[in-house]
Amino acid sequence: MRIDIVAKDNGDFHVCDLNLNYGDYVINKEFESTGIKKLIRLFDCFAAASEKGIVFVDQMDANLNNVYLTRLIEYFMYYGKGQLCFTANNLDSMTVLKENRNSIDFLSSDGHLVSWTSRGNALPDNCYRNGMIEGSPFNIDATDFVGIFW
To answer: What is the enclosing helix (H) or strand (E) of 146?
Structure first.
């Protein structure tokens, strides 16, 4: 519902605690999940991207619930006035972005960008997962591990 800032006087300075108030209960930020802590850390970045800023976030999906991640991406697609650029390992973000032109770029194993372009009924996450993106690091087969683990 809100974040309460509790200031404690410590001589020459104040120590501030963030308490997340959920209505029926309050949790100090220190005891929150890593996902909530990440959302708090990224808040200023999201606010900037929402108001005409350009923001880069590496591994945006790390420690974020997939529902929150998807809804954040949708928010910036429909309402953001700036640009949110991010890397992610979670392929679900491609499902949200696939309809928007110039929204998905893949980084190849040799360091160049490959932009997603619509290919009939092909889906970007399936093409990526199956090694069908130029320079994709995932054009491997299960048998490639035989010499390593067998």
So the answer is: helix 146-149
Mean pLDDT across the stretch 3-16? 90
C-alpha to C-alpha distance for 130 and 140, rounded to whole angstroms: 8
pTM: 0.74
Residue 81 has pLDDT above 90, yes or no: yes
Burial label for 32, CB within 10 Å (0-12, 13-18, 19+), is middle
Residues in the chain: 150
Confidence of residue 90 (pLDDT cuts 50, 70, 90): confident
DSSP 50-85: HTT-EEEETTTTTT--HHHHHHHHHHHHHT-SSEEE
Query: Residue 131 and residue 117: Cα distance in Å, rounded?
Result: 15
Q: How far apart are CA 137 and CA 123, in angstroms?
A: 18
Tokens 């590496």 — which residue?
Answer: 58
Q: Please report which helix (H) or strand (E) contains residue 17, including its range.
A: strand 13-21
85 pLDDT more than 80: yes
